[in-house]
């Protein structure tokens, strides 16, 4: 039979911007935006280089960990706000052993 169905194998991949994951590329994009808003060449260079440094640090921190490591880190280390809270899980400040 020539009509073999195509089975996609990459449905659960993280979002990408070019070759980079979104969470790694976002500090560089934010640095570009803030550098452009600073309205000076020195500010642009400073913000973009700072964004690159943060992105490299984040990429090294994420290496050999779960693909959603950055999301998990944000959940456990940032305070609970309506933007970062999840309804299914308890707040990160509530920790107790069960069993």
Rounded radius of gyration (Å) = 19 Å
How far apart are the termini?
54 Å
- Low-pLDDT parts are none
Q: Level of helix content?
A: 40-55%
Strand order of the largest sheet: 1-2
**What would the average pLDDT be, to the nearest integer?**
82
Q: What is the total tally of β strands?
A: 2
- SS-based class: mainly alpha
Helix count, DSSP H or I runs of 4 or more residues: 3
Order of helices and strands: EEHHH
Beta-strand residue fraction: under 5%
Could you please describe the fold and organization of this structure?
The protein has 99 residues and is mostly helical. The chain has a domain of 62 residues. It has three helices and two strands, in the order E-E-H-H-H. It has a two-stranded antiparallel ribbon. Helix 1 runs antiparallel to helix 2. It is flat and about 55 Å long. The mean pLDDT is 82. One of its GO terms (cellular component) is outer membrane. This is Type IV conjugative transfer system protein TraL. It holds the Pfam family TraL. It comes from Zemynaea arenosa.
Please tag this protein with its features.
99 residues; mainly alpha; two-stranded antiparallel ribbon; 4% strand; T4SS_TraL; Type IV conjugative transfer system protein TraL
In short:
The protein is mainly alpha-helical and 99 residues long. It has three helices and two strands; from the N terminus they run ββααα. The protein has a domain at 16-77.
């Amino acid at each position: 039979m020539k009509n073999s169905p195509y089975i996609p194998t990459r449905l659960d991949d993280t979002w990408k911007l070019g070759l980079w994951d979104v969470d790694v590329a976002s500090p560089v994009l934010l640095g570009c935006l803030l550098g452009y808003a600073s309205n000076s060449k020195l500010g642009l260079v400073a913000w973009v280089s700072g964004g690159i440094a943060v992105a490299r640090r984040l990429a090294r921190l994420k290496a050999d960990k779960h693909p959603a490591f950055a999301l998990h880190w944000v959940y456990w280390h940032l305070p609970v706000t309506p933007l970062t809270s999840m309804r299914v899980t308890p707040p990160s400040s509530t920790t107790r052993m069960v069993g």
